[in-house]
Amino acid sequence: MDYNFKEIEKKWQAYWAENQTFKTEIDPSKPKYYVLDMFPYPSGAGLHVGHPLGYIASDIYSRYKRLKGFQVLHPMGYDAFGLPAEQYAIQTGQHPEVTTTNNINRYRSQMDRIGFSYDWDREVRTCDPGYYKWTQWAFLKMFGSWYDRSAGKARPIEELVQAFERGGSRAADAACSEDMAFSAKQWKAYSDREKSDVLMNYRIAYQGETAVNWCADLGTVLANDEVKDGLSVRGGFPVEQKKMKQWQLRVSAYAGRLLDGLDKIDWTDSLKEIQRNWIGRSEGAEVVFKCWNGVTEHDVTIFTTRVDTIFGVTFMVLAPESDLVDILTAPECKAEVEAYLAYVRKKTERERIAETKTVTGVFSGSYGINPFTGEKVPIWISEYVLAGYGTGAIMAVPAHDSRDYAFARKFGLPVVPIIEGCDVSQESFDAKEGRMCNSGFLNGLEVKEAIPAAIDYVEKEGLGRRKVNYRLRDAIFSRQRYWGEPFPIYHKDGIPTPVAFEDLPLRLPEIDAFKPTESGEPPLARAKNWTYRGYPLETSTMPGFAGSSAYYLRYMDPHNEQALVSKEANAYWRDVDLYIGGTEHATGHLIYSRFWNKFLYDLGYVCEDEPFRKLINQGMIQGRSSFVYRVVGTNRFVSLGLKDQYETTEIHVDINLVRNDRLDLAGFKASRPEYADAEFILENGEYVCGWAVEKMSKSMFNVVNPDKICDDYGADTLRLYEMFLGPLEQSKPWDTQGIDGVHRFLRKFWRLFYEDGTLSVSEEKASRAELKVLHKLIGKEQADIEAFSFNTTVSAFMIAVNELGELRCRKREILEPMTVLLSPFAPHIAEELWRALGHTESITYARFPEFDPALAAEDTVTYPVSFNGKMRFTIDLPKSLAAAEVESSIRALDQTARYTEGKQVVKVIVVPGKIVNFVLK
RNA sequence: GCUCUGGUGGUGGAAUGGUGGACACGAGGGACUUAAAAUCCCUUGGGCAGGAAUGCCUGUACGAGUUCGAGUCUCGUCCGGAGCACCA
Question: By the number of CB atoms within 10 A of the CB, which of A118, A150, A269, A563 ranks highest?
């Protein structure tokens, strides 16, 4: 029998499915291990070879852990709500559910061919009502909770109400959108409507008016991580800042915990760093400046990390969007300020980013009093101060902040240096070093001493307080779209009220068209009877990240109708031990999921504070595009080596028409009508194509479909080759050329068992040399898999199989464990050979072979050697060496060893093949 | 600007501080074959010497340093990739 991968793979895939080989239940007798892939968004294009890279790695690890005796949870599902399906629906009128289901089926059939060991009974789809019931449930829990800063956790909103009744707003230290002050008496006097408004200020899921990213082309608001360089990540449409009332999640309350939690988890430094940047902690103080607009007095609180520079303040600046602008604009400046605000409002986010170098601003006509010096400084308004960070107002120290410096120079404001000896004639001195001067009681201190001294003074004198600020904002949670989870909220006389738990899931209604209404309301407003208990339901839907934030918990107990996850299932599976996925989710999903999990942890629904213990980011697989060169103005194409002799245009050519960079001329002519009569200028009778590494995409004609690889080489070859390409975490181009080597390896492996088509495995005892090959491999594979170095493991396999081939080893004692070792990587061929050896149970239930280091090691003897009468070595020589060879090896060492002592260089080189190791004493 | 990464043959990539380039692709040569496919063998960083076995020099972006010994550790420079960015 030959290695017929098609038959073998079909047979075992059917067998595994039929016998539910990978069905996983709680088994307290075994340690658990949870391996998770970031579930895919099923796009219409299907999978290309880049997508399964991470899935293959996680599958290998899962299978390895099973062989090691772990109970492994390894599920898969679909992130099925989202914009692309809906955009497609708007264009074609086809229901997003139909396209989504079709895409999911396509994904499933593609994944099934690769031989993954998923427990498909646990599949989840975020658009399934049975699933989004729990997304809605979690939202309601957040709606019904507040964040207690003194306890450092979320608590039920009823407890906050009790606190307010007891002692008003002072009775609780609650995270909020804006500071409020009211007494218990006032609280009790509030109407229901007023109470609702006040509580909204504290809820973890809340509706509030803030500046949001509005994308007119998509007709929806977007979260910060869905916007890049002023364009929407999906679709690339312009985004503008707009003040709107939106549902939001109080992620900012968790900023400190999200930051600290990073120290406890095993993620790459670079990914942790991305999250740290995104959270953006900075330590400083809030300081209150008394301000005067010519008519009334008003306090302005500013945030600064450099209180020490306060003696250098020469002006203050407000963000144009700040509420303070209205209050602090002096009557005589009103016209100019209005004009400036209009100018700022007109700018798109993109223009603002592009023009950060241009300095603009306007004087408000008001003045503030420096609380340290009593000095009067002018208040300006400028777009370089952001409304959303800190308090939207700053103290400007032009001598020691480059942005303030640029502003001062442009508008002729004074620059007062307060660090000894610094030169601020050309630029500001931003460094946190030097000795203070012109700074009253801070004079003579080093900057590092001055900062805490100044903060202490602020607190002691009651001028403000110590404050840690975060860049992380609350997540905007509503979308004016159809294809998402409906909010389980109805508006009862203007009061947002939760839908009762028994009525969840609140199903997505059918509507006649998937676009906004004529009056600009979200699509759900089209639904007939979109009401609850006679009141209108919320018409926004939840964003994509809602459904993906807790899916790893649902896999633990996917059919539970009473809870997101039962206590029992959660107590067993706890958290994800290994999570594999792309870095692109660093500031989105991976922040939201951690937040979501911490929230559920606070309320006691889950038992782990961090959801993902270890995280690996697989690199992207890029495409390797091919090019032909058309001579300008003709239909002649010139080969790569000769193209410099002509003026040419570079044209992408379908990589299916290219092999070894040589173009299939007939295929090329047939590919498009305009190429039918193409002529070629060849070199050595061939057309050589150029190439480049680019993103894998249809428009570059470089997409490689895994189905095609499975057809031509088999799933086992695909799996091995994807691992063989290079380190998992690195991005690398797909190059189909190298795949033959891996396929050849599998055939060689097959031929160790089969000779001339018949199984010929002997029961003879293995030799020392054969055992060495086996145990070297066991040791290597174990260490490499634990280190996720799969490419070197594949190489080690190739070496072992070559060595066994040379030894003509056909012994069961060696070959049987070899199939087990190979099974995580190439499960189909391993299963086939395992059965051929007479086993009746799947190789999945085999045990990973025991590693014996003594058998793997070189059989050596250690000899002491002295060199030059001074240096003493030990050298290890193969035991098999004859006495004469030992002597000559030692002598060779003596002559060629390289040892540098003082200035005298003596050469010492170890003779290859003779000396295994030498150790300097 | 700040932070994180990385830089090794024609290509993908190997190397607990200890023979640099494993393994594989590609290329060249050869065997088998009527032929092709498949399979197998040899050569393959660069340079020099030799009829040959082989020997010598040089080589991990660049420059210093630590070390008996550096692709690996330290500092500086250059060049990629990624993230954040008027965040006070």
Answer: A118
